[in-house]
From TrEMBL:
Keyword tags: Hydrolase, Magnesium, Metal-binding
Species of the source: Rehmannia glutinosa
Hydrolase among keywords: yes
InterPro entries the UniProt entry points to: HAD-like_sf, HAD_hydro_PyrdxlP_Pase-like, HAD_sf, Pase_PHOSPHO-typ
Co-factor(s): Mg(2+)
The keyword Lyase appears for this protein: no
Protein name per the record: Inorganic pyrophosphatase
Record SUPFAM superfamilies: HAD-like
Entry superkingdom: Eukaryota
Pfam families named among the record's database cross-references: Put_Phosphatase
Amino acid sequence: MAQIVVVFDFDKTIIELDSDNWVVDELGATDLFNELLPTMPWNLLMDRMMKELHAQGKTIEEIKDVLRRAPIHPRIVPAIKKAHALGCDLRILSDANMFFIETIIDHLGIKNCFSEINTNPSYVDNEGRLRISPYVDFQSSPHGCNRCPPNMCKGMIIERIQASLAKEGKKRMIYLGDGIGDFCPSLKLGEADFMMPRKDFPVWDLICENRALLRAEIHEWTDGDEMEVTLLKLIEKIKIQENNNSNSVQLLSVDCKFETISMAAHEALPPPLRVHQ
Ligand SMILES: [Mg+2]
Ligand SMILES: [Zn+2]
């Protein structure tokens, strides 16, 4: 069972831009989108835009083609594949929608790297129109978090994941994101977890302004190169710490100097110590 859970935001974290904007812009509907944006929540607007595009004769295949062309930094896919190969449990937590995300990760050949995708539901109806609905039905049961958009509180989803992980034994979490919606989940991370905010993006600014509210260790990244290096280093660091901890339990039982030995072990990576009583 994987000890490390890595949670990725999708837009501007895995792919280089926002998939909603990318589809709207590439299919020539930017003006209508901007006109309607002040009048309704983003998530409902995307469903509406799919209706408009369908009425204009745009097909699901055309939308898929646009999604498959979404720009991505060349190191992101290798980073995800390596993290998966190292035994991490990878998940996506996104305010985009299932159709966009699945189309893209399928195309990139990384769909099987993820154990879970938490996002707004979507499906193609009988007319061939893509329908997008909110993750949370905010009319009947609002989530009540004032930091997050009405259709999704990522913090609550992280809490649900944490609760289910607690049943499986100890887990450490690494969270990667860029947007305002990634701030709420960063507050739910514990001190053994890691937050990887994209530097100079909205979540980074919020974290800088509210540094004391976070318990997790913070490691920023700017692009795919840095994301890959930082993510793999953190995975390695956790694996070393977990190894040392299992050694330290034995050491503690004979009252050794836990801190000193644990630190030294971290530097030199000795083989497991056997303590005979
Ligand atoms: Mg994002
Ligand atoms: Zn929230």
